[in-house]
Design brief:
This protein is an alpha+beta fold. It folds into three domains: about 180 residues, Alpha Horseshoe (Leucine-rich Repeat Variant); about 200 residues, no CATH class; about 140 residues, Pleckstrin-homology domain (PH domain)/Phosphotyrosine-binding domain (PTB) (PH-domain like). The chain is about 55% helix and about 10% strand. It contains 28 helices and nine strands. A four-stranded antiparallel beta sheet has the order 3-4-5-6. A three-stranded antiparallel beta sheet has the order 7-8-9. Strand 8 and strand 9 form a beta hairpin. The longest helix is centred in the last third of the chain and has 28 residues. The two termini are about 60 Å apart. Keywords: Apoptosis, Phagocytosis, SH3-binding. This is ELMO3 protein. It holds the Pfam family ELMO_ARM. One of its GO terms (molecular function) is SH3 domain binding.
């Protein structure tokens, strides 16, 4: 456009993030993008650098507002930082006594400039950090300033150990909890973000102390009541922070999970003995003193065997496997102390069963603890994007142990439902794993609800679900397979029609029912091989398949008008009651034929024959087959045909939509011209 001083101008996107067009990003311009002519980034940076130093409050405010907006652009940010613009921002924060709008725009601009990673967070001055901390710790402070201050601190924490310690020291957990309790959702979110950043940057010991302190302050109950069950829907960011909090909390069990039992540890041996005593104390207490050491040892071994330890002479061996290590022992002890009745019932109930049918408590507990660790991802690092937290986790102290108490009783229940023996141990635990994961996927809001649902999902329900899923797996419900199914239907219905007509050609023996309802005479009816005439006639007892010539009566198929079923038949309209009448109703059908509309009345010997005959007669009349047998036969034939057709597609996933048809070639001159070759 031959503008004078062209270097003072630049193109900029008019919509969305108003990024400057540079040599590096010009290739990304899409058709239809609207660009506008603007002052070049260096000119704009120069102007705003002067503007934010202005003594005129309005000019300063506008410049800071524009700076906060433009700083999202990397080209502008670089120009502004090159002019030592950050120093000016530090000056406004450190020296200025501005609050409200000016301060909010300054902090926003600072955040945007730091996003580009041109400057390290570690270069921040002590007075600047002090100011930011003071904004967070002040009670009467603009909410937008507090949000931005919390964001700045959240970004500082992971960048260096020194900054982490400083923030942790100056912004107390209590202060963050105060911010969590405000009604402003954004402020609540930023406070949670800083809390999570502190937890993730802490060492294991610091994290344990912080979590213990949060537990004392009842943060779980607060989150459960005021965040998860608040009137506002939960945002993705908050869901992620709750997932991290849950993950950090569950990972506190990792140390015990990865520690094997030490058979020489007095404390661990006492925990193990407490399990035995809680189950059998009334039996073993009294006579224990009179027994020799050998006798006492054999009694203990017997009791440990009843408790379900595989190595009953040295049960500590069972707990050497890590994971689940000592966590399994902790869970068993928690169960025995907090639900003593359920614990005693479990152990005693299985002690009285036959050896092979008893459900081993200790072995089940060890395996169940491992399953729960896997399902809840104990010991795994937090995902950076996941949002999958369990609402019930925040409604319960000692969540892992309480969940174990519910699930170990579920193991016993499922064991009984499956009538399991020791050989079925792995199979039972597999079903239990499925029961737990399926119930957790429903996101129950409390452990009580989890308990109700997981107990309702019994073994027979699991079998039904597996059956349904197997059908899905066989892909009989995939869209292309359903289309194939529809295409196969006419062919298979024709097959059923042929079978019905063949059955009519073979014929059936019927009983005549007189007006007195006495089944006295027999008669036989069959269709001629050319499907044009129905032959029927009386037969003697004991004759099963009379020749077609012996059946004297005939009805041409062309004369047949209609088929009547059940109550519509003339021979069922005679008044009568009782069970026999109901049976006759279900098996009765009539053919209306000839101009005079005579009726030939049938009562089929069985429901199966009724279905075959009514279907066959409907085929002859050119109507649809309506019996329930048709649907059953069609389903069986379709299922078999589909399985045969899909045999070659084993382990190949069928796409829902057909692949696109390729475009026609640019020219069709690819046929070899033989005439030239001959010349």
């Amino acid at each position: 456009w031959s503008l004078p001083n062209a270097e003072r101008y630049a193109l900029q996107y008019a919509d969305g993030r108003q990024t400057y067009i540079t040599e590096s990003n010009r290739g990304e311009i899409k058709n239809g993008s609207i660009l506008r002519l603007a002052t070049s980034p260096d000119q704009e940076a120069e102007r705003l650098y002067s503007g934010i130093q202005s003594n005129n409050v309005d000019v300063k405010t506008d410049s800071l507002k524009k700076l906060a907006s433009l700083s999202q652009d990397v080209t502008f940010a670089q120009e502004f930082i090159n002019r030592n613009g950050l120093k000016q921002i530090f000056y406004i924060v450190e020296e200025g006594n501005d609050t409200g709008e000016i301060l909010a725009h300054t902090l926003k601009a600072f955040m945007e400039l730091m996003e580009h990673d041109f400057v390290s967070w570690e270069t921040l001055s002590a007075p600047f950090i002090e100011k930011i901390v003071s904004y967070v710790n002040m009670n009467a402070m603009d909410a937008s300033v507090q949000q931005l201050s919390l964001s700045i601190l959240e970004n500082m924490v992971p960048s260096s150990r020194l900054l982490f310690e400083r923030v942790k020291k100056e912004v107390t957990v209590d202060r963050l909890l105060t911010h969590l309790q405000v009604t402003n959702a954004q402020l609540q979110l930023k406070a949670m973000a800083l809390l999570i950043a502190l937890l993730l940057a802490a060492t294991d010991a610091e994290r344990r102390d912080m979590m213990e302190y949060l537990r004392e302050k009842n943060i779980r109950q607060f989150i459960h009541k005021n965040i998860i069950h608040s009137s506002e829907p939960l945002g993705d960011e908050m869901a992620h922070y709750l997932y991290v909090l849950q993950s950090v909390s569950l990972n506190l069990h990792e140390c015990r999970m990865r520690t094997s039992m030490d058979p020489y540890s007095q404390e661990q041996r006492e925990l193990l003995q407490s399990l035995r005593q809680a189950a059998f104390e009334s039996e073993s207490e009294a006579p224990a003193g009179n027994f020799s050491t050998e006798r006492r040892r054999s009694l203990c071994a017997k009791e440990f065997r009843k408790l379900g330890f595989m190595n009953n002479s040295n049960p500590a061996e069972d707990l050497r496997r890590a994971p689940p290590g000592l966590l399994a022992l902790d869970n068993m002890v928690y169960f025995s102390r907090h639900t003593p009745n359920a614990y005693s019932r479990f152990v005693l109930e299985n002690s009285s069963r036959e050896d092979k049918h008893e459900c081993p408590f200790a072995r089940s507990s060890i395996q169940l603890t491992l399953i729960l660790c896997e399902i809840l991802h104990v010991g795994e690092p937090c995902s950076e994007t996941a949002q999958a937290f369990y609402p019930m986790f925040f409604g319960q102290d000692h969540f892992f142990e309480e969940l174990f108490c519910i699930c170990i009783q579920l193991v016993n229940k499922t064991w009984k439902e499956m009538r399991a023996t020791q050989e079925d141990f792995d199979k039972v635990l597999q079903v239990v794993r499925e029961q737990i994961t399926r119930t957790l996927s429903l996101k129950p809001t409390s452990l009580e609800l989890f308990k109700t649902r997981v107990n309702a999902l019994n073994y027979s329900e699991i079998l039904k679900l597996r059956q349904t899923e197997r059908l899905h797996q066989e892909e009989t419900l995939a869209v292309p397979v359903l289309e194939l199914r529809e295409r196969l239907k006419p062919e298979l219905l024709e097959l059923i029609r042929q079978q019905r007509l063949l059955r009519l050609c073979e014929g059936t023996l019927f009983r005549k029912i007189s007006s007195r309802r006495r089944q006295d005479k027999l008669w036989y009816c069959r269709l001629s091989p050319n499907h044009k005439v129905l032959h029927y006639g009386d037969v003697e007892e004991g004759v099963h398949s009379p020749p077609i010539e012996s059946l004297t009566e005939k009805i041409p198929v062309a004369d047949m008008k209609a088929l009547l079923i059940g109550k519509e038949c003339p021979h069922t309209k005679e008044k009568s009651s009782g069970k026999q009448n109901k049976d006759v109703l279900e098996l009765a059908f009539s053919i209306v034929y000839d101009v005079e509309e005579y009726c030939l009345n049938f009562v089929a010997p069985t429901r199966y024959e009724f279905c075959l005959w009514t279907d066959g007669l409907n085929v002859l009349l050119g109507k649809e087959m309506t019996s329930e047998r048709t649907q059953t036969d069609l389903d069986v034939l379709l299922s078999m045909e589909l399985k045969l057709r899909l045999l070659d597609l084993e382990n190949i996933s069928i796409p829902d939509t057909p692949p696109p048809v390729p475009k026609p070639p640019s020219n069709l001159n690819f046929c070899y011209d033989f005439s030239h070759a001959e010349q």
